[in-house]
Amino acid sequence: MLYAFLEISLSLLAALGLCALVWLCRGWLLEPEAGAARFYAVIPVGGDGGGLELAVKRLRWLRLGEAAPCDVIIADRGLDSRGRALAEALAAREAGVVLLGPEELTRYCV
Predict the structure, then answer these.
(1) CB 59 within 8 A of CB 97
(2) Which of 49, 64, 80, 110 has the smallest count of CB within 10 Å of its CB?
(3) CA-based end-to-end distance of the chain
(4) Cα–Cα dist 58/41, whole Å
(5) Contacts of 75 (CB under 8 A, 6+ apart)
(6) CA 47 → CA 32, 75, 85, distances in Å?
(7) Local structure of residue 94 (DSSP, 8 states)
(8) 50-84 per-position pLDDT tens digit
(9) Helices (H) and strands (E) in the chain, counts
(10) 94, 56 contact by CB (below 8 A)
């Protein structure tokens, strides 16, 4: 009985230790250093903007989790009226998301 209790306790401690090690490695690999350069996630999109909302949602965890404080740039590569309306709505709704044309892109990032 005591042997089973010790075995279960040690297994739980080993699992918790492994989780802590993975968490520390994640922080070391993903967390930016203090004063690190800011970076941008650029989503080039055209047409009706298919997949744009999903791409912005997937990049949200980078910003909200403080894993990588990046700006999300929606690069207009020929959006039609429906796609443009979607991109403008996302840029208005989400903090850190901007909609830029090709000529504005270089001015924004430099």
Answers:
(1) no
(2) 110
(3) 67
(4) 11
(5) 42, 43, 44, 45, 100, 101, 102, 105
(6) 35, 12, 11
(7) S
(8) 888 888 888 877 666 665 667 889 998 888 989 98
(9) 4, 3
(10) yes
